[in-house]
Write a structure and sequence with these properties.
The complex is a heterodimer of chains A (about 260) and B (about 425).
Chain A: H1 6-24, H2 49-61, H3 84-92, E1 95-98, E2 107-110, H4 124-130, H5 149-158, E3 174-175, E4 183-184, H6 205-220, H7 224-253
Antiparallel strand pairs in A: 1-2, 3-4
Helix pairs in contact in A: 2-6, 5-6
Chain B: H1 9-17, H2 20-30, E1 32-34, H3 43-64, H4 72-81, H5 86-114, H6 122-144, H7 149-160, H8 169-177, H9 184-215, E2 231-233, H10 234-259, H11 289-297, H12 301-316, H13 318-321, H14 333-353, H15 360-386, H16 397-401
Antiparallel strand pairs in B: 1-2
Classes of the chains: A mainly alpha (about 260), B mainly alpha (about 425).
Chain lengths: ~260, ~425
């Protein structure tokens, strides 16, 4: 039996190249991106529970004024380390529209864990009308929907500042070094000290931004920890199976004269 | 007696009336296979594994998916979040498409290098090209189903290609869409066809395997088998080898699914489709990039479409373009160089397909497209006439055994229950 020949290696290398090529084109959207080490990056990464809870608080007190979280239900907050009673209490703080009742009327009631986060605006037009024509996107998937999502979002949150002197920023727009084109409709959301955290934590602009990015990385991929844990087990199993199947192949082939 | 090879009386009873066990024994057990196949011959069984994986995960996804423009994106997110292990099923299916193409592309280039398309395997090769075409159609329609930005705009760009057909083009596009733009009728018919086509692929794969088993596998030497000393029974030799290959493949596949599931996807497809907002760059999935580069290299729309389909069409007639009697590139010193150039050219086309169609990229795309057709239409027919090939070995056993052919040394392993 021949060992790996050059053609096998060559074709595998090409396959790898083609695949990485498609990623290269996804990166590089124009702005300046800060690369950070996240608790959730890498095959063994997991979400920092403290950062998730702090980030959730930042979302509630800062982002949720304009941005929805369509795909997240209150029950999902169990992933953040809240128990059932806490989740019920959080849900009850929100008012949810329900109905129609027996009289055909829609009515408002306190939220329950099965409800999803209510949207800040009834529809897209209302959202645009309330934000100078710009539409604040839903944040559930935002980290997955941008190239290099977590780093990009963090860079965007800390990327506000004075525009260079050769650049005129029109009314209703803001300078941001991370945003493609450097002009963004969203005003700077986090300045530092915006939130009085329930527990301990860094309330600087960088600290709060990193926390809310961690929270949004979770909303984009709530399955991530299960996925990686399953992956470690699957890899261990498959590697053992590689050795076992290699051994059985060698055993079977041992009577074939070279 | 055919049935005596089975120990179980139940199996013998069934086999006497419905010889499925004899059939399987003949095609998967005794089936004589050249003894000198290298690991590149694992890719056929891997493609089969990938196809079955896609069909199984696809059927489960279809149970939870809603083919409607208002619900498709949400239903996919629901699969990711609320269906038990839905994220796993969907990530397997999503990455499975890419891995299916990786496997098939390596399989094709293996055939190109070792001349597996030559007589008497022309129809085997042509059936393979049919499978490739069906795979491309299936993958394209599958990518539309999540109804993200790239789904929508990819579908718009590709279906619009048909408008290049003179005279009836516009009508054909409207007929394909079921309306005046990519919309709900398009999505629901793409879903129906995406569910249908894998089963057509299965049908052609069966024909592909029937054609394969007529003359058996080609081999790295590209010479015919001379008798039993050149072959091994498929089982257990190649079943164990395919099993090992499958485990290596699954390990790589699993590392993508569990740790980098979105590495091969485009982030824009996590933005719901919006017909009013065109993405900055509309790029197809990586496996279409070489063809996309050819499409954009030609300044004329119809010309681009013709060249793009021509890139596949040329594969159909390949057995008659390359008339060299020597199959394997091992014994064709000049062909070997051109093979690697073609491979490099295809990689270059893939890279160019991902770049914006401007400046130097356009010029390079044209050169690479020209080279692709030059290779098939000029180089291969010319080489058949002028190339001086190296002498072929007398038989598979001769080089493998270092001269003295030892008949019987490769006799089937004794089975305990035989």
């Amino acid at each position: 039996m021949r060992k790996f020949n050059i053609l096998t290696l060559g074709l595998s290398a090409v396959a790898g190249l083609m695949m990485s090529g498609s990623v290269a084109l996804a990166a590089g959207a124009g702005g300046q991106i800060v690369e950070r080490d996240w608790s959730f990056s890498g095959p063994f990464g997991s979400f920092d529970k403290g950062a998730l809870q702090r980030g959730f608080q930042v979302y509630r007190e800062v982002c949720s004024g304009c941005h929805g979280l369509d795909y997240i239900a209150f029950r999902n907050l169990a992933d953040l380390g809240y128990n059932e009673a806490e989740i019920k209490a959080i849900a009850a703080e929100y008012e949810v529209q329900d109905g129609p009742n027996e009289d055909g009327e829609m009515f408002a009631r306190p939220g329950i864990p099965a409800d999803r986060f209510p949207n800040p605006f009834p529809n897209e037009n209302a959202a645009r009308a309330g934000n100078g024509g710009a539409y604040p996107p839903d944040l559930s998937l935002i980290v997955k929907a941008r190239p290099n999502g977590a780093n990009y979002l963090y860079s965007l949150l800390v990327g506000y500042g004075e525009a260079p002197s050769d650049m005129t920023v029109p009314d209703g727009m803001h300078y941001n070094s991370a945003y493609s084109g450097h002009m963004i409709a969203m005003p700077q959301p986090i300045y530092g000290g915006d939130v009085s955290l329930a527990g301990e934590g860094d309330t600087s602009m960088e600290g709060l931004s990193a926390d809310v990015v961690t929270f949004l990385a979770w909303t984009a991929e709530p399955e991530m920890e299960t996925r990686k844990r399953t992956g470690i087990a699957a890899m261990a199993f498959l590697l053992v199976m590689c050795f076992v199947s290699y051994g059985s192949m060698r055993y079977v082939w041992s009577d074939v004269k070279k | 007696m055919q049935t005596q090879k089975f120990k179980s009386p139940v199996v013998r009873w069934i086999d006497h009336r419905l010889p499925v066990f004899s059939f399987m024994h003949h095609e998967l057990h005794e089936y004589p296979t050249p003894k000198n196949l290298n690991y590149l011959w694992n890719l056929g069984s891997l493609a089969g594994l990938a196809l079955v994986t896609m069909i199984v995960t696809g059927i489960i996804l279809a149970m939870h998916y809603t083919p409607h423009v208002d619900h498709a994106f949400q239903s996919v997110e629901r699969i990711m979040r609320d269906v038990n292990q839905g994220w796993l099923i969907r990530y397997i299916h999503m990455n499975g498409a890419s891995f299916f193409f990786i496997v098939v592309y390596i399989h094709i280039f293996r055939g190109l290098y070792y001349g597996s398309y030559k007589a008497p395997r022309e129809l085997l090769w042509i059936l393979g090209v049919v499978i490739l075409l069906l795979m491309m159609a299936t993958a394209f329609m599958g990518y539309v189903l999540p109804w993200g930005q790239m789904s929508f705009w990819g579908a718009t760009v590709i279906t619009n290609l048909f408008s290049a057909i003179p005279g009836i083009g516009e009508s054909i596009v409207i007929w394909l869409w079921g309306g005046f733009s990519v919309d709900n009728p398009t999505l629901s018919r793409f879903f129906a066809l995406h569910y249908l086509m894998p089963f057509l692929i299965v049908g052609v794969v069966i024909l592909h395997i029937i054609a394969l088993h007529r003359f058996g596998s080609n081999n790295p030497l590209g010479i015919d088998v001379n008798g039993n000393q050149d072959t091994l029974p498929f089982h257990p030799y190649y079943t164990t080898k395919d099993m090992f290959g499958a485990m290596v493949f699954l390990t790589i596949f699993a590392s993508a699914i569990f740790f980098y599931p979105n590495f091969l996807g485009h982030p824009d497809n996590y933005i719901p489709a919006n017909p009013l907002q065109t993405p900055a760059h509309i790029v197809p999935e990586w496996y279409f990039l070489p063809f996309y580069a050819i499409l954009r290299a030609i300044p004329d729309k119809l010309g681009g479409v013709l060249f793009m389909f021509g890139a596949i069409a040329v594969l159909f007639v390949l057995p008659w373009l390359d008339r060299s009697p020597v199959r394997s590139g091992r014994f064709r010193p000049v062909f070997k160089i051109f093979f690697w150039l073609l491979l490099a050219d295809c990689v270059l086309l893939g890279w160019l397909g991902a770049k914006p169609a401007e400046g130097i990229y356009v010029i390079l795309s044209r050169l690479a497209t020209a080279w692709y057709f030059f290779h098939f239409l000029i180089v291969l027919p010319m080489l058949s006439l002028v190339e001086k090939t190296r002498p072929l070995p007398q038989s598979i056993s001769t080089p493998v055994m270092g001269g003295a052919a030892m008949a019987g040394s490769s006799a089937p392993r004794e089975k305990p229950n035989a």
